[in-house]
Amino acid sequence: MNKKHFQKLEKMYLNANINTMIFDTTTCKVLDGYAEIGLNISEKYFHGLGAIHGSVYFKLLDDAAFFAANSKSEYFILTTSFNLNFLKPVKKGRIKAIGKLKFATGNSFIAESKLFNENGNEVAFGTGSFLNSKIPLNQIDDFKY
Length: 145
Fold this sequence. Notes:
Layout: H1 3-15, H2 17-22, E1 27-31, E2 34-40, H3 54-70, E3 75-86, E4 94-105, E5 108-116, E6 122-136
Antiparallel strand pairs: 1-2, 2-4, 3-6, 4-5, 5-6
């Protein structure tokens, strides 16, 4: 894959409604077998005890692993499973998920991701399995669904 492919994936991610409307401070960088997703923490992401809800951990970790895997595919991939482990709560600052492709064969991918707080401490990690869909990325014009 090449830089243009990575930029298309970044555009697809950043233009998704969930990121423009809800996770509006999201950043994304995709490279070969690697993805980095960032987010500024806001109280709108908090659960009842004043830290970010687990769904935010999941979203960033899955997204980072997903795009690390999709960096190696010309098809839109699908998450088939994702396992998440929480280590520490996060209440403020900026968080960053880093995804790395661990294994790829045919249309199957395994990627891992780690979530870090603003001090660089790991707060969660996960591993996902992904499969190619039947949708070639070059047939998607604006990456809007």
